[in-house]
Design goal:
The protein is mostly beta strands. 13% of the residues lie in helices and 54% in strands. The protein has a single domain, classed as Lipid/polyisoprenoid-binding, YceI-like (Lipocalin), CATH 2.40.128. About 7% of the residues have low confidence.
Length: 193
C-alpha cells in the first residue's frame, strides 16, 4: 500500500512538472516584426533582432500560462539605414531615452476559440493593457539543443499615438508620411530552461 502511494505521488509530481514548463526565448531563431504604412503607399517591414524573455506554458491548463519579454529598441533592422535611424530617433521610439519595449502578461484567457495573453505593453515609456492573440505548437524536441521547445506565434495591431509616438507630418495632399497603425508579429522559438 505504501509503495503504491509513493508511486502515485511520484506520478503526480512528474505530471505536474510536465504540464507547466518555463521556456526561454531563443533570439537567434525568433523574430519580432513590425509593419507600418509609409507615404500612404507601401508598408515598411522591420524587425527587432534582440528579444529576451520567458514563456511559461501549461499544457494541461492554458489559463495558467504566462509570458514576459524585453525587446531592445536599438536592435531595430529594416534593411534601410536611414529608416532604421529614424525609428530609433527622438521622432519615433527614442532608443536613447526608452531603450526597451516590454510586455508582461497578467492573465491568459480564451474567447471565441482563441487564446489571448492579457498584459501590459510598454513602448516609449507608456504602458497600455492589450489582449495578444497567440498560438503555441509543441512542446517538441529541438534536435540541435536536445531540449524541449515550443513555437509561439502572435500578432496584433496597435496605434502608435496611444504610446506617445506622435510624429505626424503630412504630405502636401494631406496624406500622413507614416501611418498610425502598427502591425506587430511575433514568431518565437523558446527552449525549456
Amino acid at each position: 500500500m505504501k509503495t503504491r502511494f509513493t508511486i502515485t505521488l511520484l506520478l503526480l509530481l512528474v505530471t505536474s512538472t510536465l504540464s507547466a514548463q518555463n521556456y526561454k526565448i531563443d533570439a537567434g531563431h525568433s523574430t519580432v516584426q513590425i509593419q507600418i504604412e509609409r507615404f500612404g503607399v507601401v508598408d515598411v517591414v522591420g524587425r527587432f533582432k534582440t528579444a529576451e524573455g520567458t514563456i511559461t506554458y501549461n499544457v494541461e491548463d492554458i489559463s495558467k500560462s504566462s509570458a514576459e519579454a524585453v525587446i531592445k529598441v536599438d536592435s531595430y533592422d529594416a534593411n534601410n539605414i536611414g529608416g532604421e535611424e529614424a525609428v530609433k530617433s527622438k521622432a519615433f521610439l527614442d532608443a536613447t531615452t526608452y531603450p526597451e519595449i516590454t510586455f508582461k502578461s497578467t492573465k491568459t484567457i480564451t474567447k471565441n476559440g482563441k487564446n489571448y495573453l492579457v498584459g501590459n505593453l510598454t513602448i516609449h515609456g507608456v504602458s497600455k493593457e492589450i489582449e495578444l492573440p497567440f498560438s503555441i505548437k509543441g512542446p517538441l524536441l529541438d534536435l540541435p539543443t536536445r531540449k524541449q521547445s515550443i513555437a509561439f506565434k502572435a500578432s496584433t495591431v496597435i496605434n502608435r499615438q496611444d504610446y506617445g509616438v506622435s510624429f505626424d507630418r503630412k504630405l502636401p495632399n494631406g496624406t500622413s508620411i507614416v501611418g498610425n497603425e502598427v502591425k506587430i508579429t511575433l514568431i518565437i522559438l523558446a527552449l525549456a530552461e
